[in-house]
Write a structure and sequence with these properties.
Helix content of chain A: 40-55%
Oligomer: heterotrimer
Number of strands of chain B: 11
Largest sheet of chain B: 5 strands, mixed
Number of helices of chain B: 19
Helix content of chain B: 40-55%
Number of strands of chain A: 4
Radius of gyration of chain A: 17 Å
Largest sheet of chain A: 4 strands, mixed
Strand order of the largest sheet of chain B: 8-7-11-9-10
Structural class of chain A: alpha+beta
Radius of gyration of chain B: 23 Å
Strand content of chain A: 5-15%
Chains: A alpha+beta (155), B alpha/beta (449), C alpha/beta (690)
Largest interface: A-B, 50 and 63 residues
Shape of chain B: globular
Shape of chain A: elongated
């Protein structure tokens, strides 16, 4: 199904005059292109009969939308209070050394983007690491290597 | 003080399977509710004294009763479920949606009937892939069950990473495809919410409580808990405790028991001692270790000028630097400030800057007072609670651990060295950074007439 | 009970206002200021963002945003004047705003007329407690050739983005990012292209959005502001022309609540630099070769004009552009009709007798019908904003005649209004003052033209000189006399050209599409003599008495056409109606709309707003010209499987062009719209294919 058609299906879930499909449409475009390129935003705008500026305005409000290129996989380490109390910073640093890049960057091979993220809602089971949007709980620094290996191996 | 036992009301008979849920009496209350009038259900909820579990603690039945009839406002009614659980320390809705999705959905359908709505939107936070998949699968299961679905359409709407969307008017804006910035009230959602139509916004746990309330009967449910805090609550416990997790208890249980009881928090591990507790998510005023002999209920916590909030209890042991806690919490609110109103947008950023200076040992005593003054100037002036709770929370750290703040100034640095687990924790960076960069060669050319 | 009066106490004063009145207005009625930044009622419901308007309300524990409060009976409100808490609140807001504001007032164009500056003096802290480096950003950024954005100065009041989203509805100027990282931006640094973009510089309460034309050009204490009326289109927006040292420096809106509500289009705002264009005609010109003119003295020119006109006599034809003032047209008409007996004129259009309602009545209508092939915004831009305002207020806007009562009808042709019963009717003329020019022509005489060979043609105005119909006449004529501003308009056709002036350089009156008679005032002296001055001299040659003063000429016209109304009665905000109310004679049967045959579509190749002599001489407006876009009605697009934004081929017998498709909801099925310059050689009937 084309992105256009997929977006129209999302639109159909909401009242005709509403712009409620913007978030679902941006999510679909990001799933398709990896990140919200200017052309992807134009495509979403055309499909929704909105302006690209409007779509970018909305997208840039939300942390999950990428407005710059990202790696094939996304590793997000929660560093909010509870996870930090369990040692999230050490988990983050383990990923940094495993990937050879800093938080906010993508590994040199383009495989993994690493970043920190605010509370993921798993505070009792920290440190929470969201790997391609699926939670890993009680992650310890020594788990980083296996997770990275799993992602690279899955290429 | 109420009993310390774990209750099974919301989280009873956990199952994601429709067949199992029905086998244990699931959806029976929905069927019964549909034989009642909306007013009868609302009255039952009023009698149960159930209050909203999202944090504001507003009586659920009253909220429903504010929705005008379709004669008064001839527009569709919308029921919007706030599943945007993002308060640091809270993860109960995550567990409720994952373990009892059908009880949650049954509550939604009963509520839809009670407020005469045929349209339900479940706004689930974008990061919650697991709960989203479980709830979606549960909805798929009832797709071919018109006896359950009735004439109600349920759409799961996924957020995309913005704490502020947990605020009901920001959630509505986001659901309408906009930037999630809170609206000025009035009008209140009950009159003009999503699509400028009457709207009820309820929390996940509240919804998952509706069917049990009907099953038990309002009178039985209202026997649980203590005055003004009836029923059960699913409390999230995290941080420096042995057994982090969600526990359904009766309000009124002592905070000490919540943290130390073997079958609950299990105490502070590793031979450390409790230093402080954030009782209701990071937006709430902190309690010192000697303040935990208090009932975990609305009135008792209010007496200590704090709140149950969204029931996220965060325990901190003696290693934690309170200035670092201030930084981390302030950074969070700065990051999540929507940018609409001035005091929150500029004030949280300023708070963080002063806190960092304090932590670095570069601040003066005057700047500690300035921090409190900045908090004071944010407080009571914002459009929504985000900035205000940030200011109150940080001000409480200074008020209750002032010696530690003063020590940073006196010693010209952090007395904890790098031993505090919050030392140099990297906060997420803001979306987009600054898009002000111009392509090469593009500069303002001044046109002279 | 909308008009129920309630009593509110503000500070020590009691005031009665209708229930529900906004608190800012309520306080103002009591003579008390509630300071604001984000509050601007023209942008829609208040948003309560900036928190500048905090007030104390009895019975409410927290300070309240004054802008979102409405007057309720018995309410007791205290502003910063009497409430320490409110004063502290406003002081806090300003302190927060200023921690990242650069305070570069000495080099800021807004300095001296800046709400932030003014409110800081009145309510703000005297010094700063912020010891951190301020946020710095690249600046200024051109968000278009017309507008510069300084993000450091921006206080994020969101007025500009609200204008873009909910007044102009162009969705181009937006907020990007969240929280303290939020900035105002366009998409990917593309220019803010839209008919109304310049309004954001005017509503910006700080120096964040400024006009590039005005950049470093003047200071508030060295300028004069002249209240006048725009002469670019038939709306006649009320404007203020800012001048310094005899030059126009900028044009601002001057809110006429019935006409423009304080919004003006970019043509009206920015196209004034044609007054000082290098190719402006500054002396009379006489033909010196096939495509060449030579300068002649004024004495020679008047002699020559007299000689040529005597040659034409009663057969002389006058072609008017519709850009003249009533007085200019009248003076010219009087010479022709009373001096020469030449009653033959080419009027720019057949004026409609319909109308007489204020434009603001569109916004208040429950049903608005638009029957216009030409986009309304391209012909009368502000009318488009009123239609949008009506839709936002809940009106049904229809592009076909619906059943049931019609509140307002907007059409591009009088004939389309025939037989339609609408409370308010608006016909969009082609020219700014076509109505007034027609009135002036009829005021000067009522004889019928002689039927004879037309040897001499007078062309008044550049727009007439570039009109294909008039040019065809010029080819036929033996002699052509032109009156205009630019040589290029007359080259190759005129034998004598007399310098014309612009609406900003003259006194006079103009009649807009409502039929509203409005005064234009001279903002700057023209580099040439006033047209009325030399017409008065030319009149003498034919024993026609003409005052060189617009006011005297106006009285003559007014006596005959405008019921004797005087200049003074027009005032700075002219009222409606000033003409005697006549019952327009509607044709009894509504003319049939053109119908299409088969699948073919009717092509509307329209003249865009951003075109013409003035725009061509304003390089910074070039980017505003419409793109290569074809607009289709939703059903036509659907029937052809054409998606919004797709590239399509528009073809007619033997010729085709590639254009980008836009699905336009303001277009009725069966028609497609293409800007004139992109229509190529397409025939009136086209097909569009993916």
């Amino acid at each position: 199904m084309s992105l256009y058609q997929a977006i129209q299906e999302e639109r159909a879930k909401y009242p005709a005059e509403s712009n409620s499909a913007v978030l679902p449409a941006l999510r679909l475009a990001q799933e398709r292109y990896g990140w919200l390129t200017p052309d992807a935003l134009r495509e979403v705008a055309d499909a929704l009969e909105l302006t690209p500026a409007y779509c970018k305005s909305v997208a840039s409000f939300y942390d999950m939308f990428h407005l710059a290129p990202v790696g094939e996989h996304l590793v997000e380490v929660c560093t909010n209070v509870s996870c930090a109390l369990y040692g999230a910073q050490q988990v983050l640093e383990a990923f940094e050394s495993e990937l050879g890049c800093r938080a906010g960057e993508t590994s040199a091979d383009g495989a993994v983007t690493l970043r920190t993220i605010e509370c993921l809602g798993g505070c009792g089971w920290g440190t929470i690491v969201s790997v391609d949007h699926h939670y890993r709980t009680r992650v310890q620094p020594e788990d980083a290597a296996a997770i990275v290996e799993e992602l690279r191996g899955g290429n | 003080m109420a009993a310390t036992e774990i209750r099974e009301v919301v989280l009873a008979d956990a199952t994601t399977s429709l067949a199992e849920y029905e086998a244990s009496g699931g959806y029976a209350q929905l069927a019964r509710a549909r034989t009642l009038t909306p007013n009868e259900i609302t009255d039952e909820l009023l009698a149960s004294e159930l209050r909203g579990r999202g944090g504001a603690f507003f009586a659920t039945g009253r909220k429903w009763s504010f929705v005008p009839t379709k004669d008064m406002i001839p527009k569709p009614h919308y029921l919007v479920i706030n599943a945007d659980e993002s308060e640091p320390g809270s993860f109960k809705d995550n567990e409720i949606m994952s373990r009892v999705p059908h009880r949650f959905i049954e509550g939604c359908l009963i509520t839809a009937h009670a407020v005469d709505s045929q349209h339900v939107y479940i706004y689930v936070r974008g990061e919650y892939t697991g709960p989203y998949e479980i709830v979606t699968a549960a909805l798929d299961e009832i797709r071919d069950r018109p006896d359950i679905r009735g004439d109600v359409t349920i759409v799961v709407h996924r957020g995309a990473g913005a704490y502020i969307c947990g605020e009901e008017t920001a959630l509505i804006e986001s659901l309408e495809g906009k930037r999630g910035q809170p609206r000025s009230k009035p009008p209140f959602p009950a009159i003009s919410g999503v699509y400028a139509s009457p709207t009820v916004v309820n929390n996940v746990e509240t919804m998952a409580t509706v069917a049990p309330v009907l099953a038990m009967g309002a009178a039985e449910y209202a026997k649980l808990g203590v005055e003004h805090s009836r029923g059960t609550r699913v409390v999230s416990i995290s941080g420096h405790v042995a057994n982090g997790g969600n526990y359904e208890i009766e309000p009124g249980i002592s905070l000490r028991d919540l943290i130390y009881a073997e079958h609950l928090g299990g105490g502070v591990p590793g031979g450390h001692t409790l230093k402080a507790v954030i009782p209701g998510g990071s937006s709430t005023v902190i309690l010192k270790a000697d303040e935990i002999d208090v009932g975990y209920d609305f009135d008792s916590l209010a007496a200590l000028r704090t709140a149950m909030g969204s029931a996220g209890v965060i325990c901190l042991d003696e290693r934690v630097c309170m200035v670092q806690l201030g930084i981390r919490v302030s950074e969070f609110y700065e990051h999540e400030s929507c940018g609409k109103c001035t005091p929150c947008r500029e004030g949280t950023r300023w708070m963080t800057a002063i806190l960092r200076k304090l932590e670095a040992g570069d601040a003066t005593a005057g700047e500690l007072d300035l921090l409190l003054d900045v908090c004071d100037r944010i407080n009571g002036k914002c459009l929504c609670p985000l900035g205000e709770t940030a200011a109150m929370a940080v001000a409480s750290y200074v008020a209750k651990f002032r010696d530690e703040y003063v020590a940073h100034i006196a010693q010209g640095g952090c007395p904890f060295g790098d031993s505090s687990p919050l030392d140099h924790v990297l906060a997420p960076v803001a979306q987009g950074h600054l898009p002000g960069r111009l392509p090469e060669g593009k500069r303002l050319e001044v046109v002279h007439g | 009970m909308a008009d129920q009066l309630v009593t509110v106490q503000i500070d020590e004063r009691s005031i009665q206002v209708p229930k529900g009145t906004g608190m800012v207005e309520t306080a103002a009625a009591a003579g008390i200021e509630i300071p604001v930044f984000c509050y601007e009622p023209r942008l829609g419901p208040p948003v309560g963002a900036c928190r500048m308007c905090l007030v104390e309300v009895e019975g409410m524990p927290k300070l309240q945003a004054g802008c979102t409060l409405t007057a309720q009976d018995g309410m007791v409100v205290k502003t910063a004047r009497t409430s320490e808490q409110a004063a502290e609140g406003q002081n806090s807001t300003l302190e927060f705003i200023l921690i990242n504001h650069p305070l570069d007032c000495p080099v800021c164009d807004k300095g001296g007329e800046c709400p932030l500056q003014d409110l800081t003096f009145r309510y703000g802290p005297g010094n700063t407690r912020m010891s951190f480096p301020k946020r710095t950003m690249e600046k200024p950024i051109p968000i278009s050739p017309l507008i510069a954005l300084d993000r450091e100065r921006c206080i994020l009041c969101y007025r500009c983005t609200r204008f873009s989203e909910s007044v102009a509805e162009d969705g181009q100027l937006v907020a990007i990012n969240r929280g303290a990282s939020s900035v105002i931006a366009t998409f990917e640094d593309e220019p803010y292209k839209g008919h109304f973009s310049g309004n954001v510089t005017e509503i910006c309460p700080v120096g964040a959005l400024t006009s590039t034309q005005y950049r470093f050009e003047a200071r508030p204490w060295e300028i004069q502001n002249v209240p006048t009326v725009c002469g670019h289109c038939p709306v006649g927006c009320n404007i203020t022309a800012t001048t310094r040292e005899g030059k126009i420096k900028r044009v601002l809106s001057r809110n006429h609540p019935e006409v423009d509500e304080g919004w003006i289009c970019d043509k009206g705002r920015y196209a004034f630099n044609h007054l000082v264009a290098l190719d402006r005609i500054t002396t009379p010109l006489r033909k010196a070769g096939p495509r060449r003119f030579e300068a002649v003295s004024w004495d020679e020119a008047i002699d020559e004009a007299e000689r040529l006109l005597r040659g034409g006599g009663a057969t002389t034809v006058t072609a008017l552009s519709g850009g003249e003032s009533v007085e200019e047209a009248y003076a010219l008409a009087k010479i022709m009709r009373q001096g020469l007996g030449a009653h033959n004129a080419v009027l720019p259009e057949t004026p409609s007798e319909l109308g007489g309602s204020p434009l603001s009545a569109i916004r208040d209508a429950k049903t608005v019908v638009v029957l216009s092939d030409v986009p309304v915004v391209e012909r009368a831009p502000i009318v488009d904003l009123w239609i949008k305002a009506a839709r936002r207020a809940g009106a049904t806007v229809s592009y076909e005649v619906p059943t049931g009562p019609i509140g307002a009808l907007v059409t591009d042709e009088t004939s389309k209004a025939a037989g339609i019963d609408a409370e308010h009717v608006y016909v969009l003329p082609f020219t700014p003052n076509g109505r007034g020019v027609a009135d002036a022509w009829s005021a000067a005489g009522d004889e019928d033209p002689v039927d004879a060979m037309q040897r001499v043609l007078i062309i008044s105005g550049d727009e007439a000189a570039t009109d294909p119909g008039v040019r065809a006449l010029a080819v036929e004529a033996e002699t052509v006399i032109g009156i205009g501003m630019f040589e290029e308009s007359f080259r190759g056709i005129a034998d004598l050209v007399l310098p014309g002036t612009s609406y900003l350089e003259r006194d006079g009156t103009t009649v807009n599409l409502e039929g509203r008679l409005q005064r234009q005032r001279r903002a700057v002296l023209a580099p040439v003599p006033d047209v009325l001055a030399w017409l008065s001299k030319l009149g003498e040659r034919f024993d026609v008495q003409l005052s060189p003063h617009a006011s005297v000429l106006f009285d003559e016209v007014s006596e005959r056409c405008f019921g004797g109304v005087t200049y003074a009665e027009l005032g700075e905000h002219a009222p409606l109606p000033l003409r005697s109310a006549e019952t327009p004679a509607y044709p009894a049967v509504r003319a049939d709309m053109p119908r299409n045959q088969g699948s073919a579509l009717r092509l509307v190749a329209y003249k865009p707003l951003f075109s013409g002599a003035a725009v061509e001489r304003t390089p910074e407006l070039e980017f505003q010209q419409p793109g290569a876009v074809v607009e289709l009605a939703p059903e036509d697009a659907r029937a052809r499987g054409i998606r919004n934004g797709a590239t399509v081929t528009v073809s007619s017998n033997g010729t085709s062009v590639e254009l980008q498709a836009r699905v336009a909801r303001d277009l009725s099925a069966g028609a497609v719209r293409i800007p004139r310059d992109h229509a190529g050689d397409l025939h009136p009937t086209v097909e569009v294919s993916p």
